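S1.2 Input.
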Amino acid sequence: MTAFPAAGLSPTSVSSPTVRSPTCASLCRLPARITASLAYLDLAVALETWNRWRLPGLFNRILPQKNEAVPPGDVIAALVLHRCTDPGSKLYAQRWFPRTALPELLGIDPKQFGNTRIHRTLEALDRVGNALQDELVKRYRSKDGLFATIFMDVTDAWFAGRGPDLAQRDRTKEGLTNRHKIGIVLLCNEHGYPLRWRVVPGKRRDQLCMQDMLDQIEDADWIGDAPLVCDRAMGQAKSVARLVDSGIRFLTATTRSEIASYTDAIPDEPFRGLNPVGSEATLEDEMTVAARTAEEAGLQKVDDQLYVYDLGVCERTFSFERPQHQFSGAAWDPDALEGGASFIALARIFADRLSKHEYRNKSELAEKEGMTRARVTQIMNTLKIAPLLQEQILAGEFGYVPERLLRQCVQIDREAEQRTLLEANARIMRPVRAAGKPPRRVGRQVVPLRLVAYFNPRMFVEQRGGLDRRRQRVESYVAELNERLCRSVHLRDKHNIRVEVHNEIARWKLGSAFDVQVNTTKDKATGKQYRHVRLMLNAEAWLRRLRYAGFVLLVGHPELPYSAVEIARLYRQKDTVEKDFQTIKSVVKLRPLYHHTDAKVRAHVSLCMLALLLDRSIERRLKRSGLAHSAAASFEQLRDCRLNLITSDHAIEPTYAATEVTQDQFAILQTLRMKGLADPEEIAEGIKFRRN
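S1.3 Output.
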């Protein structure tokens, strides 16, 4: 069977969207029947996009066939196209495949596209996941040059059932409770192309997931001077310190509770006298008042929902990862090493000092070093790793070894198993830093940071109105509770009442805003005693909550070469990665997941990321040409153009013809420079009858 050479189709010029009949004159005079109608044009467009990224050659190189009847790269292509064009299908891929034109386009016998082959290919895809990501980055740079911006974020996906070992029961980001889920860290560029992705345990906190990704990429040469934009998950002081330490130009937003630790120069005083309700009836007027107040306070108007205030470069003291200590001339200098290697060197110094009785015990050592006793024990536990492996870690033979990996090794008794873990890390981790590079910062240090504040009138009105409504709900709850306590026959325990009220306050996330007293009151008329709750608003804590409503403080690398307005716009462009997550969740149907091994889950995520690449590539081309279609909408329009198998009792061989394209379908093909996919002569010549 001859495969349809989608990559080699020439964009034959088509004078009009009317498609000529592909049958010969003699066939036209004979009765003909359409004996099969296969999904075609949407798949052909997706496959042509796949080929334009030269992905078949990439998979042939990183996934050798090893006597496979079907190249693994073709199986991956089919699975990715399934995600792109028909992700909501209730048919499993092996049942969906024969109903499409992919057997003709890829030259695959449908009988060879079975469940066993699919799962074998998924396992192979997982093994080359890191190599795939490296190659994709090279292709992006080869096509578009240096990246302008890099975005990082974390999402989650839940399972139908228990899922694999990585799945953990927790609440999803959409609010679904008690679901087995995984986390997914994604790094993408300004076009939404996926650069790096990782599947992580479901309960792992976002900031830790991002810090792990930072460990993976901080020495990558492809980052260059492109700013790394992260959301508030990386805005806590410890995470900002890690970003500073990486040397990457970064931009994030600090949490509202930490704004005051960076600056007190944000002009929030004029807003304190405003008391917006935030209802539908008052929203527009209250936003107008907030916007006018922002301009009067000296903020620069960019648009109706963005007012910027430049705070310049300021200094902030951070506590960095390792405490300062005195190097005593041991064989390995901790300050010249990084990651887990520096902790092994430090552990050896501690052990040497204890053996020489410089300190009586670990507690005294911890006190002198400015560390906790538990931290000293944690560091010294790294000496439980086999001595030979310690030397190899110190010499950098396993690449960069993070401290968390050493903690896993410590829990393993056998040297062979420790080595297996370290070797697995070496395959995915960057090498150690080149000689001459400075070690990571240690202790407390003052660092410069670029600060920009921006104000959103709508966010101000909604946050202030929301706070007031939450306060009223707590006060209403306490009023109703007091009525129940007054009517109660029994005198309830004070502690239980206090716990109940605090739980209600915590439910509305107002934990520090109220002081609670539970008193005993006596009814003068009846002499009955009952409990009464007194709720007192903590004015100082309440003011802290109101103070920066509507404000966002952006914290960035001091060398970011942008104005305050450009920095604010750059941060707000982080919806690029958020749209990527929305696409893989809703368009390519990442979830729910049905796989039951970690490897297949990781491979499934990789398929979704490749589908995302095709979606973003198509959308980018359409947008540049002024055709405002999403990839999903384009596939929907193209879906009606099917590949029809035409047979006749007198024909020598059946032939294929595509459904005549519509004006809208032709416009999409013309914009994507894929008119040849609907050319009847090329279809008739390029696609042969499926004999199997």
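S1.4 Remarks. The two ends are 9 Å apart (CA to CA).
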